[in-house]
Specification:
Number of helices: 4
Number of domains: 1
Order of helices and strands: EHHEHH
Largest sheet: 2 strands, antiparallel
Number of strands: 2
Strand content: 15-25%
Helix content: 40-55%
Length: 115
């Protein structure tokens, strides 16, 4: 499924810190890293700690790239948890910035196609 951009509301300082780490440590734009975090959250592989959300925040819309199925899974999980997807994402960004979550990229070779 192709990835599309989705908006989430995140504290500006959290976004900036996560963006710096994503660029420096994972050599990826934060929109890509954010999409991986939301997908992992939606499929139950990681759980945010609500204590990670800043009490006083200046939240603005931020864009991430994620496919629709992963986005829908994250929305369902947030609703079932009684939170918003933005709040869950913000807490995940804090954990990522603090080194409690890491992005692992794998490469898989597809079988050769017959010409």
């Amino acid at each position: 499924m192709p990835e599309r951009q989705h908006s989430l509301y995140v504290d500006n300082s959290v976004w900036k810190r996560a963006g710096e780490k994503s660029k420096r440590h994972d050599s990826r734009p934060i929109g890509w890293t954010g999409g991986r975090l939301v997908a992992a959250y939606g499929h139950g592989r990681i759980t945010p700690d609500p204590a990670d959300n800043p009490v006083v925040a200046s939240r603005t819309a931020k864009l991430i790239k994620i496919d629709d199925a992963d986005w829908a899974a994250a929305e369902r999980r947030a609703m079932q948890s009684g939170t918003s997807i933005s709040a869950a994402f913000e807490a995940l960004l804090v954990a990522y910035s603090d080194g409690r979550l890491k992005i692992v990229t794998t490469v898989v070779q597809e079988p050769a196609t017959v010409a």
